[in-house]
Design brief:
With about 325 residues, the chain is an alpha/beta fold. Helices cover about 50% and strands about 10% of the residues. Helix 16 runs antiparallel to helix 17. The longest helix is centred in the C-terminal third of the chain and has 17 residues. Bound molecules: hypoxanthine and zinc ion.
């Protein structure tokens, strides 16, 4: 089969499952919010902001990423941030998203859980008018304590019916899945879906993936492509239908490679792997750009692209009926080509 064109990829109905709302803060919105909220930031122009986006690993990325959130203060700020992302991905024909948010990054600055949550939630509701179904996944910051994770889990309780699942992000080094075993057990017992970042080429990557799967009992893994090194774990995720949310352009920023060959190998072995943008404002790449970039890099065919896109709907945390509706949209798009 032929190679996919950019137009073909942009037009495909898509789902995005690995997207940090805080990672969608584009330089222009950052400057606007800084001005509105009277926050003195060093950058004065879009070029100044972009010049700070220099990273060579996850730690140096996160060192720019978290301080950058200081401009977010009011409910409208969180709403505007999320709406800007939804408007942007409408251009990519994104139809369904499950997006991460990091409450601890904001409560630490004196923003209440309610403020950030209501802003984000209202945006997910208004996204429907753009033709996008959006859901929220609350993440714990793994470099903070288990106690803080529990405190935020409690803060989330009044909003629990509007939270689809619980995730884990930030710096994996010295912060393995088992550090949060108890809070994830509670979340799972309470009926939440569970996912976790298993970042690329971390010390102990395979052990962390194994623990996430066998001890925590995750429903999905974010990144996690190091699994390709362990055939038993690959067989396990295939058997259980546990999906991986890969982010090729992000990988290229925080490691020396997009990990496209790993993605391709997993895809061809039958793993439900997907392509996502992670932090599109920081990596200047939205979901179609990620798909196109990795397709170019490792020669993915149109069939491969369609499988990646269908996988995302298949591993979404929604009903089979809803998945079927979106998968039919993909088939209708293919029939028109
Ligand atoms: N890994 C860990 N934490 C993150 C990431 C990521 O890719 N993006 C935003 N927070
Ligand atoms: Zn991520």
């Amino acid at each position: 089969m032929t190679h996919a064109t950019k137009e073909f990829i942009y037009g495909l109905p898509k789902a995005e499952l690995h997207l940090h709302l805080e990672g969608t803060l584009e330089p222009d919105l950052k400057l606007k919010l800084a001005q509105k909220n009277n926050i003195e930031i060093a950058a004065k122009t879009i070029e100044d902001v972009e010049a700070t986006y220099k990273f060579n690993d996850l730690t140096s990325f996160l060192a720019v990423y978290y301080p950058g959130m200081e401009v977010l203060r009011t409910q409208e700020d969180f709403y505007d941030l999320a709406m800007a992302y939804f408007r942007k991905v409408k251009e990519h024909n994104v139809r369904y998203v499950e997006v991460f948010f990091d409450p601890q990054a904001h409560t630490a600055r004196g923003v209440s859980f309610e403020t950030l949550f209501e802003g984000y939630y209202k945006a997910t509701q208004d996204a429907k008018e753009l033709g996008i179904e959006a859901h929220l996944i609350m993440c714990f910051l793994r470099d903070l304590s288990e106690e803080s994770a529990f405190e935020h889990y409690e803060m989330a309780q009044p909003f629990k019916d509007r939270i689809l699942g619980i995730g884990l992000d930030s710096d994996e080094r010295d912060n393995p899945p088992l550090k949060f075993q108890r809070v994830f057990k509670k979340a799972k017992d309470d009926g939440f879906k569970i996912t976790m970042h298993c970042d690329i080429d971390q010390i102990g990557s395979i052990q962390n993936i194994r623990d996430a799967l066998h001890v925590i009992g995750v429903d999905r893994i974010d990144h996690g492509t190091n699994i390709v090194e362990d055939p038993e774990l690959v067989a396990y995720v295939i058997e259980k239908g546990i999906g991986l949310t890969s982010c090729p352009v992000s990988n290229g920023f925080v490691t020396d490679d997009m990990k496209g060959e790993e993605l391709k190998a997993l895809l061809h072995q039958g793993v439900k792997i997907t392509v996502n943008s992670d932090d599109p404002a920081y990596f200047q790449s939205y979901v179609s750009d990620d798909l196109y970039a990795v397709a170019q890099k490792v020669s993915l065919t149109e069939t491969d692209i369609v499988t990646l896109v269908k996988n995302a709907f298949e591993i979404a945390w929604t009903s089979d009926e809803n998945k079927g509706k979106y998968l039919q949209e993909v088939d209708a798009y293919l029939a028109q080509q």
